[in-house]
Amino acid sequence: MTASQAHLDLGIDVAGPGGGISAAGLAKGSPRLAAARDPKGVVYTRPWVVDLILDLVGYRPDEDLAARYAVEPSAGEGAFLVPMIRRLLASLTAHGRGLSDLRGSICAYELDADSAARAVELAERELRKYGASGRQARDLAEGWVSIGDYLLASPTGRRADIVVGNPPYIRYDDVPGEALAAYRRRYPTMVGRGDIYVGFIEAGLRQLTEGGSWASSARTGGCGRRTARSCGA
Ligand SMILES: C[S@@+](CC[C@H](N)C(=O)[O-])C[C@H]1O[C@@H](n2cnc3c(N)ncnc32)[C@H](O)[C@@H]1O
Could you tell me the distance, in angstroms and rounded to a whole number, from the CA of residue 43 to the centre of ligand 1? Predict the structure, then answer.
């Protein structure tokens, strides 16, 4: 693998679909600084962690970001997506580009329709602040966010220069059998008893272009021995 990879362990532990912060994680260190919990129990990444990850993969406004294809596999309500859009827009003027250059710059997946709708709304707001017309902002935002299952969609998706995010944390035991079987057919790392985030790591790495960059937050504990073996670790 020539692509650069970064993996931040934020002390987040499993708490059902969407993840959660474990008592063990809280006792260990600084997860409270790393992840914010919304009333539904879904863990969203804190802004400083997002900024750190985006810096790590070189998604910075001084780069010509419109020329890169960046993927957010599980957007939630835009914890990564919104800062990505801000950086993307900040990079436009410096590189003599306009809004029409941005259509193919970002792709964010989200399984939950309500969260995806919120992500679109926030993306639109950023574009309107930048000066996009209502129509332009709506078209771009809707083009960037897809309601769908990243694990099923990514193998046929366009290769990405950058894949960043915070995956869902769901134990295989809690994934419906049919979905798990479909994931396992696509991702050899999803063996044994584990967590769906393993598939997100494999899918993200596979989607990269040669020399592309992947970075993600991750729950405490890493992957099991069988998974590590199938990753070649
Ligand atoms: C831990 S949250 C992360 C949200 C956001 N990226 C962040 O960092 O705050 C994981 C999100 O993944 C979504 N999700 C779960 N399974 C998914 C799948 N198979 N494909 C895409 N999104 C999924 C959940 O609905 C949830 O919004």
Answer: 9
| Whole-angstrom distance, CA of residue 75 vs CA of residue 164 | 10
Residues with Cβ within 8 Å of 171's Cβ and at least 6 positions away in sequence, in order, are 14, 193, 194, 195, 196
Give me the domain span that covers residue 145.
4-230
Residue 17 has pLDDT above 50, yes or no: no
Angular region, 222: left φ>0, alpha ψ -120 to 50, beta rest: left
Q: Residue 68 carries which side chain, given as an amino acid letter?
A: R
Q: Is the CB of 115 under 6 A from ligand 1?
A: yes
Domain harbouring 97, CATH code: 3.40.50
What are the structure tokens assigned to 107, written together? 């792709």
pTM of the model: 0.83
Contact assessment for residue 58 and residue 84, using Cβ atoms and an 8 Å cutoff: no
Q: Are 72 and 109 in contact (CB under 8 A)?
A: yes
Average of per-residue pLDDT values in the chain: 83
Confirm if 217 and 166 have CB atoms less than 8 A apart: yes
25-60 per-position pLDDT tens digit: 222 222 233 445 444 446 789 999 999 999 999 999
The residue among 145, 202, 196 whose CA lies nearest residue 172 is 196
* Tens-digit pLDDT profile for residues 123-142: 999 999 999 999 999 999 99
In this structure, what token pair is assigned to residue 146?
């897809």
- Atom index in ligand 1 nearest the CA of residue 150 equals 20
Please tell me the total count of domains within the chain. Answer: 1
Protein residue with least CA distance to atom 19, ligand 1: 149
Distance CA 193, CA 100 (A): 46
